[in-house]
DNA sequence: AATGACTCCAACCGCTCGAAA
DNA sequence: GTTTCGAGCGGTTGGAGTCAT
């Protein structure tokens, strides 16, 4: 790492010679006082650096690397119980150092839990994980949120309450913030025009909008991506899009500069098909099915999706933050 | 092959705590 | 009771290695 020396004391990686000096000294005299050790051992290091080197790497019997599945499970369980108390966790894993466990946690286990939708800090399911990992089929269920805000639709006949709009805006911002794979041009907030435009799309209005088909696949998991795409409509040509159920809806627009696979305009790239306000008769779309089974079904009494979502959030994790967002 | 982005992890930094003076 | 000092702990840094473009 070669950090710059300070006060004439060497920092950075230890050389073989330094390790040898430290090992020989401790084997001969024991650890003793770490402050005086470097001088007596002939090392141009601070005592702290010597102690760390010895404790984490040179000390006999240290086991390094090669964490087993059992180790992982142990560390995860202990972390759930103890939090970031690495020394206490290390005490349960013989021959492992706290520093190594900490590094292993930060570089592997933490990510592993996140991939499973578990908050590595609380070890509880991430409330919005289902939204984060929506499959394409799940996407249109989320689009029900837009339907709830309806009618935003035709002729700018905007009737949704300001309260709902605020909720929606917050939700969308949240999803943008947590979007694991944001598209480069997906930035900023959605304005009212976006919402209106969006609703027109979802409700089958004859609206042009732009989707780079090669990027469409990666964006399907995040409905908040749609809005900024709408802003590109002026430069595009209109195409229809065939949904999985055969229904034609407007867009996306092909960029002629992009080689488009032959299947680009089939269901793989389709936006969600339109949804109905009468769930009982229209849950033919798997997306809606997801919505109704995963969210609405959880809260049959709820009058709208926000209420249903709130219920879901309450069930999954009692986060006041989400409750605040969802009102 | 070159370059940039990303990941890993050894080592450092700053803080806290407890013991000794 | 206060100060000092050594040790330990957890968070962070940044160089090296790897991967993707």
Automatic annotation (TrEMBL):
Q: Which GO terms describe its cellular component?
A: nucleus
Q: Where in the cell is it found?
A: Nucleus
Which Gene Ontology molecular function entries are recorded, alphabetically?
A: transcription cis-regulatory region binding
Keywords per UniProt: DNA-binding, Nucleus, Repeat, Transcription, Transcription regulation
Among the GO biological process terms of this entry, one is:
response to other organism
What protein is this chain from?
Transcription factor MYB41-like
Start and end residues of each Myb-like domain: 6-58, 59-109
Q: Which CDD domains does UniProt cross-reference here? A: SANT
Limits of the HTH myb-type domain: 6-62, 63-113
SMART domains on file? SANT (SM00717)
Main location class: nucleus
Q: Which InterPro entries match?
A: Homeodomain-like_sf (IPR009057), Myb_dom (IPR017930), Myb_TF_plants (IPR015495), SANT/Myb (IPR001005)
One family name in Pfam for this protein: Myb_DNA-binding
Which PANTHER family did the record assign?
Answer: F14D16.11-RELATED
Q: What is the lineage of its organism?
A: Eukaryota, Viridiplantae, Streptophyta, Embryophyta, Tracheophyta
